[in-house]
Every structure is written in structure tokens, then in C-alpha cells.
Amino acid sequence: MSGPVVVMGVSGSGKSTVGAALAQRLRVPFADADDFHSPANIAKMSAGEPLTDADRGPWLDDIGRWLAEHREGGVMSCSALRHIYRDRLRAACPDVVFVHLTGTPEVIAARQATRPGHFMPTSLLASQFDTLEDLGADERGVVVDVDRNVDAIVERVVAAPEIAGGTR
Ligand SMILES: Nc1ncnc2c1ncn2[C@@H]1O[C@H](COP(=O)(O)OP(=O)(O)O)[C@@H](O)[C@H]1O
Ligand SMILES: O=C(O)[C@H](O)[C@@H](O)[C@H](O)[C@H](O)COP(=O)(O)O
Q1: CA distances from 153 to 7, 50, 142, 157 (A)
Q2: What is the DSSP string of 78-99?
Q3: ipTM of the prediction
Q4: Range of the domain at 160
Q5: 156: CA distance to ligand 2 center in Å?
Q6: Tally of structural domains, the chain
Q7: What does the entry list under GO cellular component (predicted)?
Q8: Over the stretch 2-12, which tens digit does the pLDDT of each residue have?
Q9: Does the Cβ of 17 fall within 6 Å of ligand 1?
């Protein structure tokens, strides 16, 4: 493995599902950034209010610490919507690789809407897309469209040179 992987994307894109399956496939530990949110952040999102950069700062630092502790292998599902958020994760763990799960708002909204018992309301999806910044040419990562089954997404990820071909 070439470094820890962050599976990124908007709410409902499949980060938790694909991240867990990818970790199992790679036989490395898995963590979900949803579990790192403070109660205040959860309350805010549950009330339909988007998080701000300030809300996300300490959360990203905790995730960065987890990545640094899993430099030899690990998968973290984390929205990591903006370039500056990914910069913050790279500052903590420079060899992190991003897997961006992309999809149309229609496909993702349908998945988010049918997911049972999650704190994130569907009303926040528009702000997630507004906040999202695609991976730049300067960023180490892979983009995978989610309009296929989970196994196919995982196979696509493990076949990517950024994931399989590293020297670490
Ligand atoms: N490739 C896929 N095909 C069909 N359903 C999917 C796929 N990936 C995820 N799902 C479903 O879509 C919903 C959102 O997935 P989830 O992993 O919770 O997304 P996220 O963690 O990005 O919010 C869940 O109900 C999940 O079972
Ligand atoms: O930065 C954010 O606004 C949040 O991290 C957000 O992107 C994330 O989507 C929520 O934690 C909900 O969790 P799900 O992505 O699992 O819906």
C-alpha cells in the first residue's frame, strides 16, 4: 500500500460503505470520520445547519492524527470537501492518497434519502455540493464514479496506480 487512503465525497456518496469494503480488501484498519465529530457538530448538522471551516478544524486535526498513526496502511472515510481541508490532512500525513467518490446529485440524493437512521438530513446535500472542490492536479488521488456496485468501485480503486503502485 502506498500510504493511508481517505475516501472522500459528499454525504451519501458511499464513503462509509466503500471505505469499509476497501479496508477489508486491503486488510488494513478502517475508521469513519462521522465517529470523530463533536456532539456540537452532530447537533448542528442534525438541525440542518452546514458546518463552517471553524467547526471542521479540530475534527480534521483528529482525523489527521489517525492518518499519521496509520501511515503503513489504513482507510478513513471523510468528506474532505475542500482543498484546504485536504491540505490540513496532508500536513499531518504527507503520504495520504484520496479516493474521490463522485456522482450526479440525483444518484447521490437517492442513496442519501433511502439510508436509514443517519443524523445527516437530505436538506444539507446542496450545501455539500456547493462546498465540494474536486481534487486538483497537485493532489495525489483517484476519482471513481459511484454509479456502479460497491465491489466494482473497490476493484477500480485497488487497480489504480496511486493505490497499488506506491513504493511504501
Ligand atoms: N455503490 C453503491 N451502490 C448502491 N448503494 C450504495 C452504494 N454505495 C453506498 N450505497 C448506499 O447508499 C447510502 C449512502 O452510503 P454511505 O456509505 O452511508 O455514504 P456516505 O458515508 O458517503 O454518507 C447507504 O444506504 C449505502 O448502503
Ligand atoms: O464536513 C462535513 O460537512 C461533514 O463531514 C459532512 O460532509 C459529512 O457528510 C457528515 O459527517 C455526514 O456524514 P455522511 O457523509 O456519512 O452522510
Answers
A1: 11, 28, 11, 6
A2: ----SHHHHHHHHHH-TT-EEE
A3: 0.96
A4: 5-164
A5: 23
A6: 1
A7: cytoplasm
A8: 789 999 999 99
A9: yes
